[in-house]
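User: Structure tokens for this complex, please. No commentary.
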Amino acid sequence: MTSFRTLFFRSKPDASLSRARRAGKKSNPEMAHERFKFIRIFFVLGIVGLLVLLTGIVITLGPLNISVADSYSALLALFWPDHFSVDPLTSRVVWNIRFPRILGGIMAGFGLGICGSVMQAVLKNPLASPFTLGITAGAQFGISIAAVIGFSILGGPYFIIGNAFVCALLCSLFIIGLAAIKGASSENLVLAGIAVNYFFTAISQLLKYFASDEQLRLMTNWGMGDLAAFSWTNSELLLVIFVICIPLLMTKCWDLNIMTAGDETAKSIGVNAERTRIFIMVVSSLLVATIVCFMGTIAFVGLVAPHMARMVIGGDHRFLIPASGVLGALVLMSADAVGMNLIAPTIIPTGIMTSIVGVPFFMYLMMKGKRKEFWT
Amino acid sequence: MMIKLQAKSIVFGYTSNPILDDVNFEIAPSKLVTIVGPNGSGKSTLIKCIDRIAAPQGGSILIDRKDVTKMSRMDMARYLSYVPQSSVRIFPTNVFDTILMGRRPHIGWLGSDKDEKKVWDVLRLLDIERLAMSNFSELSGGQQQKVLIARALVQEAEVMLLDEPTSNLDIWHQLDVMNIIRDVVKKKEITAIMALHDLNLASYYSDRIIMMKKGKIMAAGDPHSVITEENIASVYRVEAAVRSLSDRPMIMPLRQIREARAY
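Assistant:
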């Protein structure tokens, strides 16, 4: 990171420093800091702009051949029906299929990116992701119960999804509770998370062992990591959870900065490290469980988006949280667009595409980063 | 005597094997106090108990007659700051952001120019302004220690606790760090309490020394009254020569004392 900064803010020789002093201006390090603050804001605004731009492009792509102009007319027709006319099929595809999928992708990527960044901070672990706390194993367990035993907590259309949500949430709350009893240190949480993960995976496998072919298909269909489940109703539900959870996480951005310096330091600066850790865990578990029950597991986004953001703008969570979210949305949406259109009309599941597209990109950043000492 | 900080019967650890056993002391304002003692004497634990990083089983800490043990952490952080021995950074953070963390007890949600100005002031005070945008993990041990002291200073607490701030430093940087602490104690009229291994550094810089052994205070007072051949022998089990140098007792350890053990 240092050299990234020196790249942009190479210190001028001393002559300019004394000139600045004489003129009563800010000193050189202060100028560098001001420039860094500007770049941070510029970067966040830049990726938001990129996201809007990309959304505009992706909405015109799809297995059904709809022209760019028709795609936009279909959208605008909803607001100004008098000025734009489109045939009902185009309108339905754009508004009811493409748009919710894009919106779902943006929200899921945003949520996973944000949860990844706060999880890494409170667990003080660059390997942490939203799935460290057994969310996937819990969700899979819930689905196995629904598929094999036929028991569901919520009925109707939420027969499967409801189970995934409730079990994912219970599983992570169980882990958090377990760690809280022993003292909510990051080590305890990671250990409890991994152990409980294995336990629920084992039970799911046990159920799988006794499942019929049809039940097996039901179990594997979920969990590939796919955005296809996003409809308008689901997106609205997700939006409600977002509006509750993300501001809660953002209020803790200072405490998160301090938590990365270790529990002792955090306590001495006035942050109750254990309580903050549990709070962050509970809120992000709720958020991730909601995303996962619709979409399955796309672990990669939550792991990588915070690292990408940290490479450019450093570790200040006031900027890192939104930047991780937007980068997560960008990665997920672009990967999904590629998956939808690469060998159309076959749609490659989002989770598969995210890793195939995202991992080489991340590898490139990592290799490049190593030379520039992003990683310490 | 005016009292800045008062520790009342601090107990830590299990009753069979107490790490701190009913520790009591009082410290006057604007003093540099060091806590010395052999390994396992409880000096670092005492520092941590004062700041409630380790939760003592009993006792209370009073600052300006206010019981900080009953305060919330955020309120307590306005009275007490803490400089850890070292700080491991998992994620890269620059020096400026590291120091800005210390403003947490005072800061609003967005942070303000006032807070940033205080960081610059402290950076200039410690003459590390040019390091502001460097990555904390890439600094030398001495520079890191200065940054940690800077973070404690922007916290603007009147009592600063330090846990062996010189333990990983060469002698030039040991003096550098000790001089900084002595200067801020004078200039900012804060009280510094530090655990320290080096008896000669303690003797040279301290206004008061507290000498501990097995969780108890064995001697306390000015350096001349604490750093004596008798105390070194009974607390450290080392025969030492103590001489006065620029009006401070300096010790030269001579040999270990091996008492006969009953088997």
